[in-house]
Amino acid sequence: MLIPMTYGELYQNQFNAHIVSPFYLKPMQPPLPKWYDANVQCEYHAGITGHSIENCPSFKKLIERFIKVGIVRFDDLFGPNVAGNPLLSHPDQGVNVIIENERKRTKTELRR
């Protein structure tokens, strides 16, 4: 599945939502593998040097598992999923709403 953002953006999004946290690793010791790049760091691995989050198999597998079980969904980025998340019906009841207009907030009671 293609994700609609970079893995770095996805990590920050999931971190801010308290879904993921840094996974700490000990720094690699010589001899270093061919893919090791001393100029990049991985946010998922707490800033460890050697690879970027865009090339991090551990983070990619974690996101794949999250997608599979429904923790991470991208359909919400493209508008509400009304079929999957229908609004509750409010038969014969008023519904309160708060409208934000620049710096003032107005509470309104709607009735049928």
UniProtKB/TrEMBL annotation:
Highest taxon of source: Eukaryota
PANTHER family: DNA-DIRECTED RNA POLYMERASE SUBUNIT ALPHA, DYNACTIN SUBUNIT 1-LIKE
Protein name per the record: Uncharacterized protein
Organism for this UniProt entry: Gossypium arboreum
